# Entry
Amino acid sequence: MMKNGILTFLFAFCPGAGQMYQGYMKRGLSLITMFCVAFGASTLLEVLYVAMPIVWMYSFFDTFNLRAQIGAGTAPQDDYLVHINWHDQRMEQFMLDSHKLLGWGLIALGALVAYQNILMNTLGDIVWRWGQSSPFFRALYLMMDQLPEIVVCVALIICGAWLVRGPKGRKQKPQNDAEDEDFTEYAAQDAQAEPEARGFAMPKLSALLGKPVTPDDETEDADDGRDEK
# Structure
C-alpha cells in the first residue's frame, strides 16, 4: 500500500523513520541504530563523524527506493540490514583470515579512547589548576594534544611505504616449479655412462652411418658361402 508522498518525504529526513512509515520496521530499526551508534562513537573519537552522513544519505534515498519498489510490486521482505552469525561460514573465514588485524584495530581504538578521555582530561585539569602560569605545562599540553595526529600520520606513512615495497617472503613461485620437482636433468655424459655400467657400449656413430644392407648384398653373401663349401 502506497503511503502519503509528503509524509514519506518528511520522514525520510530522519534515518530509519521513512522505512518504518512504509512498514519496514526491521529495516528502519537497523538504520536508526547505526546512526545512533555512529553518533555515540563520534563523541569518543571525532573521526567517526564521517559515518553519520553516510548512514543518513543511505536512509534518505532508500526511503524513496522502497516507495518505488512498493509501487512496482517488487518490494523486498522486511529484514535487518546487519546479521551477525558467528556460525556463518563467511564470518568464520573472516575471523580466521583477519583476526589479528581486527585485534590490533580494537587495541588502537581502546588506546585512543583512553588517551583522550583519561590522559588528556587529567593533564587538562593539572594545567588548569597549577600550570596556567607555567610555560612548561602549557607546552606539554599542546604537544600531547597533537600527539594522536602525529601518530596517525606516521602510521599512514609506514603503511604506504610497506605497500609500495611489498611484503617480503611472499613472492609467487613460478607455475612450473611443481612440475620441475619430479624432473631430473640428464647430461650427455650421464647417458653414455649408463649403458657402460650395464655391461655394453653404445655403437659408434661411424657404424650407424655405414652403408645400408640391401637384398643384393644378402644374395652375394649367400653365394660366397656356397662356393667356399
